[in-house]
Amino acid sequence: MSRSKDVQVQRSKEAAGDTAPAPVALGSDFLQLDIGQAPPGCRTEWLADRLREAIADGRLPVGSRLPASRVLAEELRVARGVVTEAYQRLAEAGQVAGRGRLGTTVVAAPPAPGPVTATDPGEATGTAAGAAAGALFEAGAREGAVSALRAAPCRIDLSPGVPDLAAFPRAAWLRAERAVLGSLPPSGFGYGDAQGAPELRTAVAEWLARSRGIRADPGEVIVVAGVAQALGLLGAVLLANGVDRIAFEDPGSLGARQQLEYGGITTVPVPVDEGGLRVDALRASGAKAALLTPAHQFPTGVVLDGERRRALLRWAAEEDGLIIEDDYDAEHRYDRTPVPALRSLLAERVCYAGSVSKLLAPALRVGWLLVPPHHHEAVVTAKRNADLGNALLPQLVLAHLMTSGELERHLRFVRRRHRARRDAMLRAIGTHLPGARVHGAAAGLHLTVTFDTPFEDTGFEDTGFEDTGFADTGLAAAALDAGVKVHPLSWHRVRPGPPGLVLGYAAGPASEIEEGVAVLGAALRRSRPTR
Amino acid sequence: MSRSKDVQVQRSKEAAGDTAPAPVALGSDFLQLDIGQAPPGCRTEWLADRLREAIADGRLPVGSRLPASRVLAEELRVARGVVTEAYQRLAEAGQVAGRGRLGTTVVAAPPAPGPVTATDPGEATGTAAGAAAGALFEAGAREGAVSALRAAPCRIDLSPGVPDLAAFPRAAWLRAERAVLGSLPPSGFGYGDAQGAPELRTAVAEWLARSRGIRADPGEVIVVAGVAQALGLLGAVLLANGVDRIAFEDPGSLGARQQLEYGGITTVPVPVDEGGLRVDALRASGAKAALLTPAHQFPTGVVLDGERRRALLRWAAEEDGLIIEDDYDAEHRYDRTPVPALRSLLAERVCYAGSVSKLLAPALRVGWLLVPPHHHEAVVTAKRNADLGNALLPQLVLAHLMTSGELERHLRFVRRRHRARRDAMLRAIGTHLPGARVHGAAAGLHLTVTFDTPFEDTGFEDTGFEDTGFADTGLAAAALDAGVKVHPLSWHRVRPGPPGLVLGYAAGPASEIEEGVAVLGAALRRSRPTR
C-alpha cells in the first residue's frame, strides 16, 4: 500500500514544522495499539477504551502526556477526529485534561472496574455487536428491542425517526441559553410549574396554531419529556379510568406499543390500509381509545384520508371514544399539502402529542400534550408525580427559539436537506433494491420498502431466522453485521405481511445513504443466490 | 409623603439627560395602572398581566411602544426591576420585542383567553392567594398540597428544601454548555442511553466516592429526573415484586410520601426519635422496605445514630429488607462531621437516591439512583419506559461541572452563605419566636421549630383550623396571608405531636429571613392575645 509511505512523508514534514514542546515518548507502539482490532465504525469507542485500560493499569500513569492527536492518528492510520474525540471522552470523564500547547495530560485514573451491566453502551463493543446482532433481532418485539438496537454500534444508521442531527442549531441554542440565563430571576431556579413553564406553554400554543391549525390556550398545554412520556402518563390516567384496552395501528410503532403495554394497557391491533386506519375494524374491536399517527402513518407513511377522518370522528362521538393523535413528524412534508391535525377538528375527543424529537433532536426530551378538559387535571397530576415537571432551562431556551422564529428557520433549512436525502435514498433503492416497493415517501423522515418476492430462507441460515416467518429480521441482522442499522418492518407489525424494511433517510448525508442501501442490496443478493 | 417629590426631581433630571428618542406617549396613566391594586410581592406578575390585558384589548396595539422601564417604574413607584422583569416575561411570550434604543415594541397579541386551569400559576394572583391560603392549608396532607403551596405567590419564601438560588453559577453553566455544544458529535443529539449519559454516570460515581464514601461503578448509576422520579420508579418496581408497603419516617416528607402513595404503595409510618428511625418499630411494622433520610432526617434534622444504623442494617440482613436512602441534603453541614451514607456500608440492601436540587437548583431536575444489582435492570427499564432517559445537554453540562471542580467550588461557596443565613434565622427565632424549640440546625437547608405551649385556638378562628388539632396549619396560613410562606410541621406528620413549623433559611438573604420570622412572630402573638 502506498498509504504507508504517504503517512511517513507527512509525518516527517509535520515533525519538522511542529513548534510544540519536545515530542512525547508515547505512541501507538508504546501502548501496543492495533487498530485492526477495532470493530468497524467503533474506532473512537475502541480507542477510548484502550486508553482507559492503559491509564487504569499504569501504562499511562497520572501526570503522563498523551501523544499529540495528529501523531497518534497517523500511527493508527485513522482520521484525526477519531483520536480527538477519544481524548474528549476521557476529558469529559475527568481522566485527562488540557489541550493547549502542553498537550493532553492524564489527571486521574478511572474507577476500578465494577460489575458490568447490560445497559452500559460503553461495553457494547463492535465485536460484541456483531455477535449480538442475531440475538438483538431475535428479541423481535420483546421489550426494549428498539432501545437495544438504538444502543448497538454501527457505521451507518438508517433507523427511522431521527432528523438531521448535524444541522442542530448549536449557536442559536447557546445564544438563547445565554439570554435565558441572563434574565431568569433567582426564584426561577426553584421548583417550577409541573405542567411546564408558562413561557413554553405559550410558545407551544402559538406554534401549534401556526403550524398545525390547533387552537389551544397555554393553560391546556402540558409539557412532557417527549411523546414516550406522554403515552405513559395518558396510559396510566386511562387505566385509572377503566380504559385498559387501546386500539393500535397495525403496522404501527413497536416502541409506542411497548410503552403502553409496559404501563399495563392491552393494545388491540387494528389494520391499516391505503386509506389509513380501518375505522370499521376499530369499531368492531370494542376499544374505547385508539392511538393513531394520522398525518403520516408510522411506518407505512399513509395519510388518513377524508372519508376515514370523518368516520373516525363519528366513532369517537358515537362510542364515547378517545383518539390519541401522535403527530410525530407532521412538520416534515415534501410533495403534498399539510394535513390538519385531528385535534383541530374535535378537541374534546382528541389527545394530541408532539415533540421536538423530529423538529430538533431526540436528545432534548421535550414534548407537549393536549388532552380533553375532563382528563387535564389527572394528567398534570400524573406528570407532577412522575418528575415534578420538565427541567426549566431547556424549556425556556426552546420557548425562545420558538418565539424568535429560529425554530421555523431551522425547520425550513432541514426540510430542504431532508428532501434531498429522501431523493438520494429513492435513487439508491432504485439502483440496489430493484425489487422493492416504496411506501410513504411524500413526507416524514423515513420510508418503508416491502418485497413482493418471498425471501430465500437459505440466505439467512446464519442468523437463525429461517423459520420465523419474519425473514426481514434476518436481512436487518445481516445488514447490522455489515455495519448498517435498519428496522425490520415485521418489528412494527402484529399480523404477518410481506417482508420489508423501515429506512430513515434524514440523519445522514447522501453518501452514507447510498452506501447503506448498497449494503442492504448486497445482503439481499447473498440471500438469493443466482442459480 | 416626600417620596413623590423625590421622584419628580429625579424624573426631570433624567428626562433632561435622556438621549433616547422622543418620549413615548404611554405611561401608567394611559394604561390606567394603579399599583395599589397589586398584591404585595406579586407586582411583576400583576404588571405583566395588566400589560397583557392592554395588548389583548387593543389599548397597546401591535407596533406600539411600551414606556421606558425607568419612566414606568417611577410613575408606578416600583423598583425598575419590577418593570424590566414584566417586560421580559412579555418578551419571552413573544408579545413584545427589542430593548435597544428604539425601546420595547408590541409585536403580537396574546392568544384569546381560554379555559383557566387550576394549575396555571400565572392565574394565581396574590389576591386569589390571600383568599386561597386557607383552602391551601386546609388541603393538609391531600395530594398536591406541597405543589400547590409551591405555586402560591408570596413575598418571602421560607419553604424548606431550596438552596441559595441567587448563587446559581450561571456563568460556569454557560461556559460548560458552550464546551459541551462545541464537542458533542451529531449522533449525540439522537436517542441516548436511557440509563443516563456515560459521562455523567462516571462523574456521579466519582462525586459519590469523594463526597459520600460510596464506591459505585458508572454502570450502576441511573440518572433520573430528581429524587421524585427515583421514588416513582422504585415504587413501581417494588410493587411489581410484591412489595406494596414501604415504611416511612414519621415525621417525614409529605411530598415523598404522596409520591409513593400515588404509585399505589401503602406507606407505613414508623416513629422518629432523637436517635432517628425507631428500628424496633420498623421491625414490628412488618414492612419489607423503608424510606429514610439518615444523614439529616426530614424534617427533624436528627442524624441516625450509630446504634440505630447497626440495628437497621441487621434488620435489612435478617428480614431481607430494602433500605431506600434519600440523601437529600447531605452535602450541607456546618457544625458536625459528615455521616457516611448507608449505601457505603451495605450496597446490596440499600437503594441510594440523590440529586442536584439542593446542590445547584431544583429546576434542573437531575438526580441519580443506585439500586441493588437484582433490581438494576428493572429500574432501568422503568426509566426507559418513563421518558427514554433524561435530556442529554444538561447531563453533559453537569458532568462538566462535576469533573472540572466547579461544582465543588460552588458548594464551598454556598455553604458559607447558608451557614450565615442559618445563623440569621437562629437569631431571628430568638428574637421573634421566644417560646420556640429549634431542631436539626447543624446541617441542611432548613430547621424545624416546635412550640411546647399549645396554640390558642382563638387566634386562628378566621382560618378555619381551630378544630383540626393541627393548629400549625393555621399559623402557616396566617403567615401566607401576610406574604410569608412556610410549611406547617403537621403536614409532614401522620400522628399528632406538638405544633411546629419547618423553615427553610438557605434561599433568601438574611434581611428576608429576619423579616419573615418577624411576620411569624406577629402572627403567633395575634393568636395569643395578652390577657
Q: β content of chain A, as a range?
A: 5-15%
Strand line-up of the largest beta sheet of chain A: 4-11-10-9-8-5-6-7
Mean pLDDT of chain A: 82
Oligomer classification: homodimer
SS elements, strand count of chain A: 16
Major interchain interface with per-chain residue totals: A-B, 102 and 102 residues
Report how far the terminal alpha carbons of chain A are from each other: 37 Å
Note poorly predicted spans of chain A.
1-27, 112-131, 456-470
Q: Name the shape of chain A in a single word.
A: globular
Largest sheet of chain A: 8 strands, mixed
Total helical segments of chain A: 17
Radius of gyration of chain A: 25 Å
- Can you give the helix content of chain A as a percent range? 40-55%
* SS-derived structural category of chain A: alpha/beta
Question: Could you describe the 3D structure shown?
Answer:
2 copies of one chain form a homodimer. With 531 residues, the first copy, chain A, is of the alpha/beta class. Chain A contains 17 helices and 16 strands. The first copy, chain A, has helices spanning 3-17, 43-56, 69-76, 80-92, 126-138, 145-151, 170-183, 198-212, 226-240, 254-262, 279-285, 306-319, 373-387, 392-404, 406-432, 471-481, 510-527, and strands spanning 96-97, 105-106, 156-157, 222-224, 245-250, 266-273, 276-277, 289-292, 322-326, 350-355, 367-370, 436-439, 446-451, 484-485, 487-488, 500-504. Chain A has an 8-stranded mixed β-sheet with strand order 4-11-10-9-8-5-6-7, sandwiched between helices. Chain A has a 4-stranded antiparallel β-sheet with strand order 12-13-16-15. In chain A, strands 1-2 form a two-stranded antiparallel ribbon. The radius of gyration of chain A is 25 Å and the shape is globular. The two termini of chain A are 37 Å apart. In chain A, 54% of the residues are buried. At the A-B interface, helix 4, helix 6, helix 7, helix 8 and helix 9 of A face helix 4, helix 6, helix 7, helix 8 and helix 9 of B.
